């Protein structure tokens, strides 16, 4: 259990090796990322779905956060960042001993406890993003099994290979500043594959799936956006100039992506869609993540334009033309917003990576590693640039193959124990059938209430007013 002799325990609350400022920023950044999930995505999921699925969708996110936390401290942290067990995986081990937690982490001037907390919230949000593809039909008991199995057998392999100093892709020089591969590409692919195994929502839900509260959805989206300051700003493991650059690039790219998506919606559909703008925000956040602190500001703007247009095209055009995409019911379109945008960000990181900024982040002084193709060509070292692009593409292929395989195996194992999909009667009712509770004591999905008789006649009948429900003609179709 990583025991150290008792005489090696720190004698002071702030040992000489610890930087108090860095430790405080790392804990703050981790908390910002945690707020993206709880309450950020809990609110976003609970409000962007049909009313009858609000509670179930929010609770899938909340459960995933709690379940991943227990798995993380129990064995997953060591599998992701601990002693090498396989070329692609660390040795499973409990990470709760104080003689381990209070000593210096593998990177940064702060203790292992801080590093574990910071990495925990990254693992948790990955599972919550996968849930976005499964809303509105997955058996909750199946989800309860899926979460610990997937974080154990898929996330840990990806994290160790790309982020651990012993990982094979890390040693090759893969640029993934803050999780474009480990979190977003993984969750996008895993969500799509899991959705394929679980099956689609009911025909009625697929045809009409209006959000129950768009204003609340925007509140969740706002928490997601602002929380990304910790998501990308915390990955230098220091309150450094590189962290400052990463935070600024994150917001510049996101704003440009949102505006690009909004412009395309107006140009082709005539209306500025609020949900569309939110999707553009998410694709911008995802795209900049693997490159946040290793690209210049002008590159972040270009990345924002591309993340607001290419995923828009795959979602609005290609999705209607490619048979496989039409067949798989991806509720929150995580394939487009995370897999496509994550791939795009990984490729653009390999193209725009500034070797000087890479030296700040990675401490690499080798001119061959971490040189973007654009800089390689400009400085007369195209071989180094093409090599970096090759490593980025190899990382994309690895993450896709890993998640297609592991997610399929996990779904098959869960399917043996419990059904992946809810029963038809539960699909018709939603929250009340699954949890015995409902989110709102209101009337039907996307319907207007018309009072036919507002007079109460308690003296004669003691009845409530007679009400008539009719379908809203302006309800938004999901």
Automatic annotation (TrEMBL):
List, in alphabetical order, the GO biological process terms annotated in this UniProt record.
Answer: response to symbiotic fungus
* Membrane topology per record: Multi-pass membrane protein
Q: Domain of life, per the record?
A: Eukaryota
UniProt main location, coarse: membrane
Q: Spell out the subcellular localization from the entry.
A: Cell membrane
Q: Which residues cross the membrane?
A: 24-46, 53-75, 116-135, 142-165, 177-198, 210-228, 248-270, 282-313, 333-353, 390-414
List each copy of the Ammonium transporter AmtB-like domain by range. Answer: 25-440
> GO MF annotations for this entry?
ammonium channel activity
- Name a GO CC annotation attached to this entry: plasma membrane
Q: Which UniProt keywords apply?
A: Ammonia transport, Cell membrane, Glycoprotein, Membrane, Transmembrane, Transmembrane helix, Transport
Family note: Belongs to the ammonia transporter channel (TC 1.A.11.2) family.
Please state what the protein is called: Ammonium transporter
């Amino acid at each position: 259990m990583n025991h150290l002799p008792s005489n090696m325990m720190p004698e002071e609350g702030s040992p000489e090796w610890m930087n108090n400022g860095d430790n405080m920023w790392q804990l703050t950044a981790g908390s910002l990322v945690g707020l993206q999930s709880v309450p950020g995505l809990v609110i976003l999921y609970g409000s962007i779905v049909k009313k009858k699925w609000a509670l179930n969708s929010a609770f899938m996110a909340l459960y995933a956060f709690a379940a991943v936390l227990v798995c993380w401290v129990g064995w997953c942290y060591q599998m992701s960042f601990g002693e090498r067990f396989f070329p692609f995986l660390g040795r499973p081990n409990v990470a709760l001993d104080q003689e381990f937690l209070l000593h210096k982490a593998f990177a940064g001037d702060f203790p292992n406890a801080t590093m574990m907390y910071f990495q925990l919230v990254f693992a948790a949000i990955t599972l919550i993003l996968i849930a976005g593809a499964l809303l509105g039909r997955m058996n909750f008991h199946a989800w309860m099994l899926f979460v610990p199995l997937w974080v154990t057998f898929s996330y840990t392999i990806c994290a160790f290979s790309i982020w651990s100093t012993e990982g094979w892709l890390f040693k090759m020089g893969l640029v993934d500043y803050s999780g474009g591969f480990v979190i977003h590409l993984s969750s996008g692919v895993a969500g799509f594959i899991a959705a394929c195994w679980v099956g689609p929502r009911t025909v009625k839900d697929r045809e009409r799936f209006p959000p129950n509260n768009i204003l609340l959805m925007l509140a969740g989206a706002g928490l997601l956006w602002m929380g990304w300051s910790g998501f990308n700003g915390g990955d230098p493991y220091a309150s450094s100039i590189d962290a400052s650059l990463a935070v600024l690039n994150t917001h510049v790219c996101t704003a440009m992506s949102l505006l690009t998506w909004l412009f395309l919606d107006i140009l082709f559909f005539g209306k500025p869609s609020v949900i569309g703008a939110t999707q553009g925000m998410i694709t911008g956040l995802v795209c900049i993540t693997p490159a946040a602190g290793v690209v210049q500001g002008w590159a972040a703007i270009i990345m924002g334009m591309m993340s607001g247009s290419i995923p828009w095209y795959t979602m609005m055009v290609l999705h209607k033309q490619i048979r496989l995409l039409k067949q798989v019911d991806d509720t929150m379109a995580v394939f487009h917003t995370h897999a496509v945008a994550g791939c795009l960000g990984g490729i653009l990181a390999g193209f725009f990576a500034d070797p000087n900024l890479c030296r700040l982040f990675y401490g690499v002084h080798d001119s061959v590693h971490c040189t973007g193709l654009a800089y390689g060509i400009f400085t007369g070292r195209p071989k180094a640039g093409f090599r970096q692009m090759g490593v980025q593409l190899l990382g994309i292929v690895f993450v896709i193959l890993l998640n297609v395989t592991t997610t399929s195996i996990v779904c098959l194992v869960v399917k043996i124990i419990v059904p992946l999909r809810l029963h038809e009667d539960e699909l018709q009712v939603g929250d009340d059938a699954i949890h015995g509770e409902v989110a709102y004591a209101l009337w039907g999905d996307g319907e207007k209430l018309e009072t036919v008789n507002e007079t109460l006649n308690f003296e004669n009948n003691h009845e409530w007013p007679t009400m008539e429900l009719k379908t809203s003609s302006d309800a938004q179709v999901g």
